Amino acid sequence: MTVEQLQLQITALTAEKVDVHGRDGRAVDRVIAMLDTGELRVAEPRDGDWTTNAWVKEAILLYFARRNRRLPPKRYYRKVGVRCVKPGIARYGSFLAPGVVLMPAFVNIGAYVGENTMIDTWATVGSCAQIGKGVHLSGGVGIGGVLEPPQATPVIVEDGAFIGSRCIVVEGVRVEREAVIGAGVILTASTPILDVRGGEAVILKGRVPARAVVIPGTQNKRFAAGEFGTPCALIVGTRDASTDLKTSLNAALREHEVAV
Q: Is the preceding omega at residue 149 within 30 degrees of 0, hence cis?
């Protein structure tokens, strides 16, 4: 069965709201199996941007119904070149590429994790999040998940990015390649990301530019009861692209005093 045929079947199952516990649900099983092996992705890079495959998310929702919300874990980590340190767990239907290290952490269904990425202790990768190659998710990082609405873009962390301890990245935020996010930064779709590298602050939302170095900050905002500091993120520097990635990361952390 081709991907196009699978898509047609999933779309029909969603529209007709049929019972997926029987033979009709086999297409759902096939989609989840392809997510598990990386043959399918919830979102994928295309022409310099990212495209969300809403029908794949619909298949995941149908799988919840087919399994009565009892989702199995992945197995055979070593066979596919993944190191899983117990009690680390990834759900079946998530993809972990060769070289991934999964510490006592959690990866949910639909997520994609690229080669040689480190998911450190107590980090969570939510459903459908897309994590690139050579990424480091430090201890306690929370990468948000999204299933509904199906067309919503998941959190995307591109190749080589470093996410510091206790960071939270949710609501479809995109962290572009080789960005460095300091400890404790909270990024939501509405969080102001202030680029202060130039003479005047530039406000971004929902996207951290490639190789940016980001720290937590506050921004004054006036309310009826007075003026108070509200959370924001500050882009304070640029990761040096002229050196190798490891040296560049260390230099960025030292130069800008970014906590990890």
A: yes
Q: Which two tokens stand for residue 80?
A: 């596919």
Domain ranges of the chain: 3-66, 185-260
Q: What percent of the chain has pLDDT over 70?
A: 92
CA count, 13 A, side-chain hemisphere, 169: 39
The Cα–Cα gap between 158 and 256 comes to: 22
Q: pLDDT digit string (tens) for 122-132?
A: 999 999 999 99
240's tokens? 């040096």
Q: In what order do the strands lie in the sheet with 142-143?
A: 89-90, 106-107, 124-125, 142-143, 168-169, 186-187
Q: What number is the average pLDDT over the span 30-38?
A: 97
Q: How far apart are CA 38 and CA 71, in angstroms?
A: 18
Burial degree of 172 (CB within 10 A; 0-12, 13-18, 19+): buried
Length of the chain: 260
Mean pLDDT over the full length of the chain: 92
Pairing label, strands 136-137, 162-163: parallel
The topology under which CATH files domain 3-66 is: 1.10.166
DSSP secondary structure of 154-206: PPEE-TT-EE-TT-EE-TT-EE-TT-EE-TT-EE-TT--EEE-SSSS-EEE-S
Q: Whole-angstrom Cα distance, residue 173 to residue 73?
A: 27
| Count of Cβ atoms closer than 10 Å to residue 75 Cβ | 10
Residue 258 dihedral angles phi and psi, to the nearest 5°: -85, 125
Query: Where do we find the tokens 């009826």?
Result: 224
The pLDDT value given to residue 245: 54
pTM above 0.85, yes or no: yes
